[in-house]
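Q: How would the structure tokens look for this protein?
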Amino acid sequence: MLGIIGVLLSLALLMYLAYKGVSVIILAPLVGLFALLFNSGFNGYFMATYTEVYMGAFGSFTRNYFPLFVTGAIFAKIMDAADYTKSIAAFVAGRLGKDKAILAVVIAGAILTYGGVSLFVVAFVVYPIAVSLFRGADIPKRLIPGCIALGAFTFTMTALPGTPQVQNTIPMAYFGTDSFAAPVLGLIAAVVMFVLGMLWLTRRAAKAKAAGEGYGDHNDKVELFSLDDRSKYPPVIIAVLPIFVMIGLNLLFSKVYYAAVDGSYLEKFGTALNRVSGNWAVILALVFTSVLMLVFNAKRLFKSGINVMLKEGISNSFTPIISSSAVAGFGGIIRTVAAYAVIQQFILGLSKNPLISEALSVNLLCGLTASASGGLGAALEALSQTLIDMGNSAGISMEALHRVASVAAGGLDTLPFNGAVVTTLAICGLTHRESYRDICATSVVIPIIATAVIVILASVGLQF
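A: Here is the predicted structure in token form.
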């Protein structure tokens, strides 16, 4: 019992101190060793646990996903430096106009996120356009973070087949799938999130209008966007081309090339092709597309300093990958304590259905760590083999397990102390009190509903 209390206290400390702004990179090993103290007393071999267990899990996560984080960050940086992101956002805003301001912001964020642009970059790019459109339509500014969250933190991050976001790529190594796993389930989850999210936001805007509330008096420190600005950016057909190329290459590598490759040589590396080909496909698609963008924008990008741009892109990946690896390391420590087996059995014992057990465990860990990637990695590192065994016994496909895990990661992750939430509110110059209610509705409650929907559908036989 004392061991379980230690695990729960360590999770509570991680959550509370992360909310207070303490870096998870510092917190994760400390609270992990704190849990060990409760389970083993002072005979817990703390240094051995830190260097061999914590750093082992930390390094394993980094080894598996560092290339994805780096190539994704570089791709996003090139898209931004070439003004492709601004072109896409401006085009969507211009075509929909101020009367569809909410839809324009959501769609702009969705296109950019599905194209592999970092969630943080999306918030920076979309915000100035959102301010201009919401001012023109006299919609309360406090709704902007909810719109950004719906477009960037939900269906394009976890549900749409082929999305290169890490929340969709992490399950590939555990289930031997690719980023297009269970496309029908993914599309259903995406529709649920988009439709319910739009209904929530439009209802909130209508209620504010009926109450006489407009945009509000805000000192927006941002260069306002004008539809005339579209002429400054590349044509939108050019701007979206890299997204289609990246998705097409990903599909080609994962479904055609690697499907025909003899992967028996990987036995000497201790792995199998179906466990790594999904990651490889996304990495190669991002690399090839990034090179093409560099070639076609060589004059412009080299003139503005390509080395600086690439360094910034690489640097942008460091904090996310290290933070996620730190959380995975914390999970590695927790898995070694005696109380973990009791907690694991409790979670898995909540249902004999592996999809329900998976959805609950992923959501809980993502919530406790306030990280979709970190919580998802920790949950699958600890439970994937058990879930695979349960799935095989129950006739659940690995694709269904992949999609449920990915969509579940987008639920409780965006609690108030989540990094993307804090960053988005800071960019918008708003507080949790003003805007978190809408972020919570669009990126916590509704994704949990979508997860429940696909769990039900997969349980009754729709597993593709």
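The radius of gyration is 22 Å.

The chain has a mean pLDDT of 83.

Upvote if useful.
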